[in-house]
């Protein structure tokens, strides 16, 4: 089973994470940021991965370090869990509608970290979650996972719907990209290597 555990402890956060790419049976998220918990659960459920995430962060300041550091740790764990990347489809994309909103994500497990992000949120915070952290989370995740990630809110009005649509879209794109295809021999690359 492809899995990895990762821990990170700084003056700002203490994080314990385990991701299980082939066993989605357990998803347990506790970050102290309710809306972020909701988004991470949506990401894991739609990504069909098991995810255990516990964060003790400096929420007396704000939610920035908690959210960004969770992206760092998740990205590193995903990279480790994928191992040599043999047999994975590598690419994935998904459109997700949520009522009036349409979100989109595309992933290339390329070894070349990059984020292209298009999304504007009129509401500045949802509970104790600052909506500007959506991009920060995906940047931290993409760069530490070593993936190319494109995320777009194509249209919508409700901030909750916009953010949830893209978290679900990224999860669904990831599920496709990490899937093992028995017809792929070695890695899905003309170079013969995905770093």
UniProtKB/TrEMBL annotation:
Coiled coil: none
Superkingdom per UniProt: Bacteria
Pfam families registered for this protein in UniProt: IGPD
InterPro entries tied to this protein: IGPD_sf, ImidazoleglycerolP_deHydtase, ImidazoleglycerP_deHydtase_CS, Ribosomal_Su5_D2-typ_SF
Catalytic activity: D-erythro-1-(imidazol-4-yl)glycerol 3-phosphate = 3-(imidazol-4-yl)-2-oxopropyl phosphate + H2O
GO MF assignments: imidazoleglycerol-phosphate dehydratase activity
Alphabetical keyword list: Amino-acid biosynthesis, Cytoplasm, Histidine biosynthesis, Lyase
Intracellular or extracellular location(s): Cytoplasm
Main subcellular location of this protein, as a coarse class: cytoplasm
This protein's pathway: Amino-acid biosynthesis; L-histidine biosynthesis; L-histidine from 5-phospho-alpha-D-ribose 1-diphosphate: step 6/9
Enzyme class: lyase
Enzyme Commission number(s) from the entry: 4.2.1.19
NCBIfam families reported in the protein's UniProt record: PRK00951.1-2, PRK00951.2-1, PRK00951.2-4
Family affiliation: Belongs to the imidazoleglycerol-phosphate dehydratase family.
Entries under PANTHER family matching the protein: IMIDAZOLEGLYCEROL-PHOSPHATE DEHYDRATASE (PTHR23133:SF2), IMIDAZOLEGLYCEROL-PHOSPHATE DEHYDRATASE HIS7 (PTHR23133)
Protein name: Imidazoleglycerol-phosphate dehydratase
